[in-house]
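Module 6 notes. Inverse folding takes a fixed backbone as the condition and produces residue identities as the prediction. Think of it as a translation problem where the source language is geometry and the target language is the twenty amino acids. Below is one complete input and output pair. Work through it position by position during the lab.
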């Protein structure tokens, strides 16, 4: 091996040894410099740690006792108390229409009539035979008392008389079928035929409805079937012509006997007096059913509760700070939850920014209810 190569190897080995000795010291120095650069500067550097100490703005509510109502909400529709499509029981040409569309009619009012002249003629013919038939019965009865005729002869004339009277009643019933009369008090709708039209038993002349009282039909989930029975009071909300919502009350009068297999819902009907007939059938509405009501309950807004490890936590505002409190909940409604334990009337519960809060964090109230 030449001297140059030998001294070159010795130099490389020395450099490696020096590097091993010096590297740890350099590493500690650079780490120390880096840490020094990351430390917050006095009076303004390192903004993040300082921001953590700044208060956040929140909204809050002061708890007070109130009535808490558990409601079941459903949708429904208005239907007439009674409704029927009017048609004749016989066929013929209409000779008279006696109603005005969209008006009230009374039960038994004559609404329309078809031609009954052939029947009237048949009735007149039969009625003309009545005096002679009566006279025969009288004469045969007198002779029977004197044993001048047989019992069989007397029964024959009485049978003929009874048959004549039955024929008369049959013709009268056919004449009645030519008259269309209102089956109940109600409002007659738009007529579908005119005078002179030929109608059959399937021809609809008009629609008749009774809307006072009015029926409210809706369905409830099978889970709440036991909450609705005959006599249960309900509230329903509808939009008025001016675009505002108005609440009405009605009473359940009938409940379906079984739950629908298709919808798993129970159909219910209630009655609303509708004395002024201001609500018409076919309207869409929202139905509210009170399941139970708790008086003097402490209720917190639903958004203020934080579920945490199987517990329910709310934050209270105390002297400008947020303090977490575990509560025991009870009844839940759409917007509030009953607090059974952990809170008292007068406590100030934070309702916004709850996910950012920590124990003792500084807060400023922007709005309080």
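Target side of the pair, the amino acids:
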């Amino acid at each position: 091996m030449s001297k140059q190569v030998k001294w070159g190897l010795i130099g490389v080995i020395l450099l490696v040894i020096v590097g091993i000795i010096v590297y740890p010291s350099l590493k500690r120095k650079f780490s120390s410099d880096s840490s020094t650069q990351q430390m917050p500067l006095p009076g303004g550097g390192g903004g993040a740690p300082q921001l953590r100490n700044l208060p956040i703005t929140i909204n809050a509510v002061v708890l007070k006792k109130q009535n808490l109502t558990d409601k079941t909400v459903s949708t429904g529709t208005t239907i007439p108390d009674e409704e029927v499509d009017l048609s004749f029981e016989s066929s013929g040409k209409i000779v008279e229409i006696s109603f005005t569309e969209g008006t009230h009619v009374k039960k038994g009012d004559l609404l329309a009539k078809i031609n009954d002249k052939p029947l009237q003629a048949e009735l007149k013919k039969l009625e003309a035979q009545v005096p002679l038939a009566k006279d025969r019965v009288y004469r045969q009865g007198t002779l029977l008392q004197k044993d001048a005729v047989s019992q069989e002869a007397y029964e024959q004339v009485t049978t003929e008389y009874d048959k004549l009277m039955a024929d008369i009643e049959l013709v009268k019933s056919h004449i009645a079928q030519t008259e269309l009369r209102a089956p109940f008090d109600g409002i007659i709708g738009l007529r579908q035929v005119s005078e002179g039209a030929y109608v059959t038993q399937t021809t609809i002349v008009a629609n008749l409805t009774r809307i006072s009282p009015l029926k409210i039909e809706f369905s409830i989930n099978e889970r709440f079937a036991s909450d609705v029975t005959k006599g249960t009071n309900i509230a329903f909300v509808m939009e008025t012509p001016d675009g505002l919502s108005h609440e009405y009350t009605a009473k359940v009068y009938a409940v379906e006997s079984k739950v629908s297999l298709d919808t798993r819902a129970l159909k219910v009907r209630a009655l609303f007096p509708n004395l002024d007939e201001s609500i018409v059938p076919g309207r869409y509405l929202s139905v509210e059913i009170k399941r139970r009501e708790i008086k003097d309950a402490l209720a917190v807004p639903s958004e203020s509760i934080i579920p945490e490890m199987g517990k329910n936590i709310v934050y209270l505002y105390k002297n400008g700070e947020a303090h977490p409190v575990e509560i025991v909940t009870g009844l839940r409604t759409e917007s509030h939850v009953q607090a059974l334990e952990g809170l008292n009337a007068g406590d100030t519960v934070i309702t916004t920014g709850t996910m950012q809060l920590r124990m003792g964090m500084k807060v400023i109230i922007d709005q309080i209810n």
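Reference fact for the lab report: Residues 105 and 302 are 54 Å apart (CA to CA).
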